[in-house]
What does this fold into?
Amino acid sequence: MKLILASTSLRRAEILRDAGFSFTVVASSIDETPVPGESPSDLVQRLADAKAELAATRAVGPAIIVAADTVVALEGRIFGKPRSSEDARHMLLNLSGRTHAVVTGVTLIRLPDAERRTFVESTLVHFAQLSEEEITRYLATEEPHDKAGAYAIQGRAGRYIPRIEGDYFNVVGLPLSHVTEALAELGWSED
It folds into this structure.
């Protein structure tokens, strides 16, 4: 049975590849605009469902599709990917010195019977207090520009994160252990 990652995220692909999974990638671009009043958990699950369903329409043969979407949430406010350097600066200023949640929605669909597993994983991230100079220096690396919350824990921003509570891989973009468990429930094997 094939494994299909319904995402062009380099980080999600790297997590799966480093864990020894063989898979193919199917792009599944969708409108990621939050619905007014939508909670972070509802948003990421809705987007993961939509990505998985889009990929399912393009898949051929027996397969399991894995789709995910991740946001950063602080006091109910959603921080997606920054649209500009100023947007990234604003996000980092808000997260600086505070604890926030990284929330990932995951949808797996087994084909051809469309059996599915869905879940939301949340990890608390404690962010150090950053000076204006540190934020400016970090923004100059270009690292924050395509990351939810404008930072990458696995990159340079890792030096500003003294601790997390929960799944590290969730903060990177895919809660590996929970995904592996869901794959097993759907009967996936590496044969």
